[in-house]
Design brief:
Blueprint lengths: L9 H23 L6 H24 L16
Helix pairs in contact: 1-2
Length: 78
């Protein structure tokens, strides 16, 4: 498997974290607004699982580097 390593400062990481949260919100909306057996809902549910696993991995790596503020979804952090 190929790997890509990126370097983020806290502001860039916060933008990534916000983007992941926004995408999760969009996917949850797709699941909620479609029949649970529709292809759209099933695909979105699978994407939510993958996204959350990615978030767990990213968070575990970032926790030792950045302060807890970097995980804020509040506009006050900006």
């Amino acid at each position: 498997m190929r790997e890509l390593q990126l370097n983020f400062d806290s502001a860039a990481f916060n933008m990534l974290w916000r983007s992941l949260a926004a995408r999760e919100k969009e996917l949850l909306s797709i699941v909620e607004n479609n029949d649970e057996e529709s292809d759209e809902a099933i695909d979105a549910a699978n994407d939510i699982i993958a996204l959350r696993l990615f978030q767990i991995e990213v968070k575990s790596q970032a926790e030792g580097i950045f302060s807890d503020n970097v995980f804020s979804l509040s506009n006050e952090y900006l």
